[in-house]
Fold this protein.
Amino acid sequence: MRLEGVHFRYEDAPDHVPDVIDGVDLEIRPGETMALVGVTGSGKSTLLQLVPRLYDVTGGTITIDGVDVREMSLMDLRSLTAVAFEDATLFSDSVRDNVLLGADPALSEEESEALLHLALRTADATFTYDLPVGVDTRIGEEGMSLSGGQRQRLALARSIAAKPAVLLLDDPLSALDTKTEEIVTERLREVLEGTTTLIVAHRTSTVALADRVALLEGGRVVAVGTHAELMETSARYRWVIAHQAEERRRDQDIETLTGELELRAIQEEGR
């Protein structure tokens, strides 16, 4: 996948506002996992959304195997790609149908079951087997009967089950606790082998999945290399990684405090 001179700006953006994506050149090699790293507002998620044409570039080109994505039909393009976003989109249907939504319809029942189990296990979503009617349980509109972390894991399982040529992940582990994140990260490492993957990373553990990292700032790629290379050569990259780690620690402290307050409220109510 190659991005050449890619620009993007919203239609209603005032003339004085710079492009959200401002001349990005980037090549993701076949089977490579590349992480996009940067502070909030640097353009990571927007860049990711340009690949499956949730937005169209306003300048430059994005090609997959040399073909401009704008020359592909949306059906063809989206049969090559699968996405999992931080805000998971699920449907009022069974777990099974949500996860296998993009899977090859020619699979036998036995093959579908094996794929379903692989995807759920990789995303640490086997909790679904314990639902009232297992994976045939309907999860409600937008999966509102599930927690945020559970919804994210099902969306990730769906993207895995699609077995895409190009996998696009936008911070898909943000709602997971540290232990679950470690489990999913390790299993993802095996599944991503051979799949061309572009992943927006806000955590060091997610960055560790990548073969290379692209640092974005102000809609531009300002550095590309392995995590180790950038830690050695880029002061800005070191700052971003440290900043993200600090945010993660702060979020964990808030989660811990919230849990303690909820437990105290339950104990008081019991008295």
Remarks:
- The first helix runs from residue 44 to 50.
- The two ends are 61 Å apart (CA to CA).
- The mean pLDDT is 87.
- The domain at 2-88+164-270 is CATH 3.40.50.300 (Rossmann fold).
